[in-house]
Amino acid sequence: MGKDLKGRELGKGLYQRKDGRYEARTKINGSDVSIYGFNLRELKKEFQELKEEAQNSIDFRRKHITLNEWFEEWFQTYKLPVVKETSVYPMKNKFYGSFGKYLGERKLCDITNIDIQSVINQMSSGGRAVSSMREELGRMRECMESARNNQILSINPCFEISVPWENRQVTRRFLSREEQNTFLKTVEHSWYKEMFYLMFLTGMRIGEVGGLMWKDVDFNGKCLRINRSLSCQYEYGKKMLRLLAPKTHNSYRKIPFFGEAEEMLLQQKAKTDSLKKVLGNRFRATGEYADLVFVTTMGSPVLRYHAEKEIKKVVKEINEQEAFESVQEQREPHYFEDMYPHAIRHTFCSRCFEAGMQPKVVQSIMGHQHYSTTIDIYTHVSESKYQEEIGKFGRAVEPEEDGSMEGPEKGTDTGMIQTFG
Fold it and tell me: What is the model's pLDDT at position 119?
């Protein structure tokens, strides 16, 4: 309770200032409401009117704010300060392609549980991936829960929503040793030879490969340090290139030189230095990109696009050669399966396990945030070895060397002993 200068009680939110003026102040749903005046009676009357006006203004906002308007306010206040810069456009784009598209102009307070379910149903019938629907529903639920916490909604309509289950196994592409050798043999004369060798020898993500700088290469300590990732995405039709922090905290790591890693890096250094001399001012990787290890033939930063394009080219060349040889040898062709840059990362991980490395060590080298990711690949390798070991058992009765097989003599178990001996 406030008091006047003589110590008399004035009422809640009221008090008298030293200059003699009375002040009335309060908060209505987080908004300050205050007023000054010398006439206490008039001040109280005006203060009451001001509070009613503020309350009505908030009530009006509650009744009329649309989903899209609230999403923008919520995203700006709660998400923008904490999400990665590269995540802002994709997150907003996905919202406006789902709930924003179907319910964006609806008043927030009019959206019901059945409206949310209807959007999910439309997304499902339109062929939207289950993972995408679950991601968007989760973000919508978070947005609406914030509206409830801010007293714009009394309940969150996003609970008890049915989303189809996706019963499918994620199949990772691993290259066998034979496939790996064939691939690297084919890239022998490619501009990107050293890059692909290093990918097979480090398991780096393609963004980490693109963001690797010479200052990250420790020739004395025989290791690489992963400190950043190169990101490229289109935002509102414009290509945006950024050097960012790695994917997760665990992605900051040190990778020792395996196999021919040092040799490949020295070759790459010589090749890049030569290219800079040839291109001069036309060398495109300048400014913050000037120290990049891997560049294109024009000195531009290497993006996922360049790696994918070169991989397709290599696979095509391998399969064309296989088609030719299979005709010459009059046999069925064994074509090289399509692959992508991340398949090389999976392959490196499997090679680590084949070499007998412990899962925790492999997790550290790979920069996996979750141990389960490492174990999934370990399980794949273990299952492959399991099948190999089973294959060693052979038949119950092996054929004789000349191709004939004679059974044991009647009344003896000599044949059985010989079979399992």
Answer: 96
Write down the pLDDT at residue 222: 97
pLDDT, one tens digit per residue, over 108-154 is: 999 999 999 999 999 999 989 898 999 999 999 999 999 999 888 88
* Pair 246, 226: CB distance under 8 Å: yes
- Exposed (0-12), middle (13-18) or buried (19+): which is 396, by Cβ within 10 Å? exposed
Helical H segments across 303-358, by residue range: 304-328, 341-354
The DSSP result for 116-173, as a single string, is HHHHHHHHHHTT--HHHHHHHHHHHHHHHHHHHHTTS-SS-TTSS-------------
Collect all residues with Cβ–Cβ distance below 8 Å to 73 and sequence separation of at least 6: none
Extract long-range pairs of 85-93: CB within 8 Å, 24+ residues apart: 85/242, 85/244, 86/231, 86/233, 86/240, 86/242, 86/244, 89/233, 89/235, 89/236, 90/233, 91/139
Q: What are phi and psi of 249, to 5 degrees?
A: -60, -40
Q: How far is CA 21 from CA 6, 35, 37, 51, 110, in A?
A: 13, 10, 5, 19, 45
- Least confident among 55-69, 98-112, 333-347: 55-69
Residue 168 pLDDT level (bands cut at 50, 70, 90): low
pLDDT band at 239 (very low <50, low <70, confident <90, very high): confident
Structure tokens at 382: 């273990």
Q: What is the pLDDT of residue 419?
A: 35
Residue 6: exposure state from Cβ atoms within 10 A (0-12, 13-18, ≥19): exposed
For residue 401, what pLDDT is reported? 63
Q: What is the model's pTM?
A: 0.67
Would you give the DSSP letter of residue 187? G
Q: Bridge partners of 107?
A: 66
Dihedral angle at the C-alpha atoms of 228, 229, 234, 239, nearest 10 degrees?
Answer: 70
Q: Which residues contact 329 (CB under 8 A, 6 or more apart)?
A: none
How far is 372 from 375, CA to CA, in rounded Å?
A: 5
417 pLDDT higher than 50 = no
Strand partners, 339: none
Nearest to 161 by CA among 196, 111, 126, 236: 111
Task: Kindly give, in sequence order, each residue whose CB lies less than 8 Å from that of residue 317, ignoring residues fewer than 6 positions away.
Answer: 186
